[in-house]
Amino acid sequence: MKSNIFSPKSIAIIGASPHKKKLGFQVLKNVIDGGYKGKIYPINIDPSIRHIQSHKSYSSVLKVPGKIDMAVFVIPAKFVPQALQECGKKKIKLAVIISAGFKEVGGEGVELEKQILKIAKKSGIRILGPNCLGFINTKIKLNASFAPSMPSDGNVAVVSQSGAICTAILDWASKNHIGFSKFFSLGNKSDITELDLLPYLASDKQTSVITSYLENVAGNNGGDDFRGVAEKTTLKKPVVILKAGISEKGAAAISSHTGSLAGSNQAISSLFKQSGVIRANSLEDLFDYAEAFSLLKAPTGNRVAIITNAGGPGVMTTDAIEGTKLELATLTNETQEKLKKVLPPAANIHNPIDLVGDADDLRYKNALNIIETDKNVDSILVLLTPQTSTKIEATAELVLKKIKKSSKTIIPIFMGGKRANHGIDIFEKNHSAVFEYPERAVKALEKISFCQSCEMGIRKIYPPKILKIKKSRKNKVNKIIVGARRAVPENQPTLIAGSTADEILKQYDIPILKSSLAKARSEAIKKSKKIGFPVVFKIDSPDIIHKSDVGGVIVGIKNEKEAGVAFSKIMSNIKRNAPRAKINGIMIYEMVSLGIEFFIGAKRDPTYGPLVGFGLGGVFVEILKDVSFRLAPLSYFDIDKMIGELKSAKIISGARGKGSLDKKGIVDALIKVSNLMINHPQISELDINPLAVFENRVVAVDNRLIIL
Amino acid sequence: MKSNIFSPKSIAIIGASPHKKKLGFQVLKNVIDGGYKGKIYPINIDPSIRHIQSHKSYSSVLKVPGKIDMAVFVIPAKFVPQALQECGKKKIKLAVIISAGFKEVGGEGVELEKQILKIAKKSGIRILGPNCLGFINTKIKLNASFAPSMPSDGNVAVVSQSGAICTAILDWASKNHIGFSKFFSLGNKSDITELDLLPYLASDKQTSVITSYLENVAGNNGGDDFRGVAEKTTLKKPVVILKAGISEKGAAAISSHTGSLAGSNQAISSLFKQSGVIRANSLEDLFDYAEAFSLLKAPTGNRVAIITNAGGPGVMTTDAIEGTKLELATLTNETQEKLKKVLPPAANIHNPIDLVGDADDLRYKNALNIIETDKNVDSILVLLTPQTSTKIEATAELVLKKIKKSSKTIIPIFMGGKRANHGIDIFEKNHSAVFEYPERAVKALEKISFCQSCEMGIRKIYPPKILKIKKSRKNKVNKIIVGARRAVPENQPTLIAGSTADEILKQYDIPILKSSLAKARSEAIKKSKKIGFPVVFKIDSPDIIHKSDVGGVIVGIKNEKEAGVAFSKIMSNIKRNAPRAKINGIMIYEMVSLGIEFFIGAKRDPTYGPLVGFGLGGVFVEILKDVSFRLAPLSYFDIDKMIGELKSAKIISGARGKGSLDKKGIVDALIKVSNLMINHPQISELDINPLAVFENRVVAVDNRLIIL
What we know:
The first copy, chain A, is α/β, with parallel strands linked by helices. Chain A is built from 23 helices and 30 strands.
């Protein structure tokens, strides 16, 4: 996408109207009132209309004498294709289609959307929308939307898939004096999506934080995918996304709303983590983070000082810091000595610093001056409660001055309502961040302290680990899959388990139990010896599913003698209990004491591809749910984070005096599963449970795959 | 406490001052300006002062001719004792001591507080404070505080341990038009605490919800305890408490602030659950819940309908409902048919009901009229985003009317900022609840839907199960404890494990492994047979701690022959490896396959008494942390909730095709541990891990107690 596409020098408003009640009137008015300096061409099919809102109007873009960079569509859906074709002829580069009546209404609308996409592709036009609010570029004072008013300019970019959320965001910003760089309403995302806008905004000089509301996130469909695009963007700028439709019911509400498929919450969560996107869990979060990233400087460390005029709020703030990656700063002795000199005896000179109830602005100033120079402090939360002698406005003014001059991150938190708002207004009017509640300020501070693109974050992309797997091995896997598939009726999922599943894992060198097939008693004895006692015997027959039920399993075979007896025993059991079963022989497995049972799973998400899970295994895996997920292909960094998220990470590193487990073995197995899932899209699900983990070895004991 | 104590007919302000800058001026002014109709007596030691703020003043309460019900103290701490003594003589019933300089400053202040308490007790005076903001009773228009203004009257009672939080709450209420019934600043809680105020407010007619900010919660100190008081109160009215100081650091901040000990978060959490208290996790929560309980009617069920003018916010609200105890209502066919008739074709007639972006007030009205009569709907969330054609004020007015008339709970959520606020103002000015974010509205709705004192809640107190334990058994336990205690130096904790711990559990009939002590080989064989093979032998010696290390343990003894061999083997091992150890004999234990390993623990909290825990056991109990807690004495109801909170509850009820486990055995064991902890305060900690749980049996396998 060309970088100047949203900075047109001339625009046509197709459907511009002289009637105040029409959307075409409002959109043209917005363009004019916003202060746009480029050429404006109202287009109205009625040739009797000559001027609309003092601008000369035309019956078609083709009638416009000059060049047109962009067209806004506010005409009924059915007229869009023809008008778009004319835009093609006119070499217009961008069509902002506000008109509704496309995919979102189903039926004919779907066809109509396909039709306009085809036209656009052929003519080299990019489409924003349809069914959108339009877009705003404050840099060139262009309000090409039907939003009720032009927002002030600032450094926040907004990309929203819901027009209503756009209006709510604009309304919030107008109250809180937040300014925007660019504002995009995505509508049906027929052409331009977040995949285009993230790179565009990453290099947009006016933008320093990208915020977004999405109902579905563009998947991995051939070309650039979200992960690739977003991880590059988040290296440059923070990206905050509110993804709606996390619940099944929520997802249903989306389908009936925009007709698009919502990705599973787990996949989205992995996707965001892997691409460095900051997830907002509510609109309130989105607003808080937008404000913080827009207005606050990123701290250079995680040590927080709290200044307060009351103990209670200090305690509440300390509570809020607990459980985050932030830390309560330990003030230097020097700081404490200095504080002692300027504060009354009842004050607390340790962090949280309590200036006591009668603190005026001067006392805040003295404390701030001292704390600001403490080398152990990275950011300062300034709490104020509206007590009788509190100088709310004066304190706000002085904190504001400090914020502007200080090299540290200073966040005011003014608690209360009516009186506190007098202070809050001062910050807001001066475009300075301010909070009403400590919990929210702390949450926002944590985000700006640990964001990937900010000072303290991780500034590197860790490439996924792609293994070189021999073609013959891949073919072998595919052959097994095709074979298994053939045995099952069309459209039914195929389960692959037992030795067949092991055979697939073996091609990727995922360690499985040593095993061997024996057809005769003497062979069984010989092979058991080779594997090493104790061993387990299992009947191998495509016709026997529940092997134990027919006496087809004997465990704990300790020596050659027992092996011989066991072979005969199983064979006679089968002869009696399943006389007509086809018998391949007896599978001999090494018998391992189970070590610690972990679990590796994979499930192919329809939108985002294979989701790989790792966690505590065994029979209760679904109950304990100590499992973490990432999308394949996995990087070593991903796996490190996956393991770190688990409660059972402590077991791996050695808990309760026990030795540490084979972490390298776990990592290898995960990389191999990741590659297996990437290379063989027929595999829909995979289950290694348990993955027995020992101090120096891992073994995939019980393995199943589902093929679609 | 007498019910009229906070409705005095006459009050003295001790320290009333004619100087505007003095607190004694402000407090008197507040009393007068508030509109108090009773008699007001300013007291100032300076006899030259005759009148203060037009009220005749006196140099001592003893000089006042009439009766005085209450005195407010605004004099320096050191003068308080004498003035209080005079109050005693004057038969004043309540002293509101605003003055600071007591326990909170340490040293002499602590002594001073003890002194005034002694005086008060002797004279029958109750004390609110010291070091508090005072109190407000809007019913009699009494503002006996130095809060900057008199709040409007309403049904919310506030009890706050922080004066600053008081001012923040008043300021919030003033902005949001929330009215109060009573307002208490507790200060140092020297005499009157939440234990007095909860019962008082429970029967206060003006109060319908009790909100509180506490830094420490009154413990179980002999008389009435918090649990007993609160569970009675919550049956009548919702009680919402914000407890600060949940983190260790937070707790430290409190100690340095009020010198009081913060209870552990786990104990507080159990205490609140067991007494039906609703816990607010932030001031924002407290405000939201206060507003909801104050202004909304409690719904009669948990089925929620959503009406919205945009899909996005509908999805967000559905997301917010997921994971709560609320449910998205399924509209009747009739409702859907009716909706179809009045809504445009693009609208969604399923829940969430999307009126689409151009919805005006009439469309909201039509939808509300229909949804209101749907028998499948208990409460209605009305969402509005400020879109171009949205009639914000008109919609607010009509929703307001509906709220007043409807039998259902209707909650408006107006999202945005500047324009949305025009609607929000209409609700607030009319004392009607309104929210800005769906997540917060849903959270508040859940609270009012499931509160103990509201329609859908549980309206019963479940008494703790107290077992009748024979005195001889209790004595036996005490004797064992004393004996064990004797063996360890003073001031050091005593560990009781092995057969001694088993002996204690046995007195309470907690099922332990069958065991027997044998001193001779033949005895060992005989007793093994009696217990039933297989058995385990363990050397029993007070001098041998690590029994395995000296060859003192043999497991899996299968028959009489093996028993004989094992006895000799252990004895010879000990002779060789620990020749000087005193040997009691060999303990024989039944050998159980471990079933599923659970865990019962107990720890005595210094403030709230024994906290009993239950959860998944085994070696990884601390890692998986699938444990729930309640304070002893436990009721059957408590245990039911404890088990219900666990992920592993599913294992007990039969997971993955396995049979259910012996839940009754678990419940019995928990009741017995609860009684053991209550009856023997010397026991500081107890650990049963594992508690082996089978389908029809539980066994406390490995047991330890710590005695202090």
